[in-house]
Amino acid sequence: MKVNVGNIDRVLRISSGVVIVTLTALGMISPWGWLAIGLIVSGVLRNCTLYSLLGINTCKR
Known about the structure:
- The protein contains 3 helices and no strands.
- It is mostly helical.
């Protein structure tokens, strides 16, 4: 798997994913919030499928 998520993007994905999943677990937002687990996974793996399809790379070259 090719890395295409930079450090700032990674931190934003993981932190926003954790916040959304926490709010979902507390019942404060819709159950659709569980999809934010995808943000956490893509941040941890440093790979975004949508970025790959669109040719976007936020890593420093």
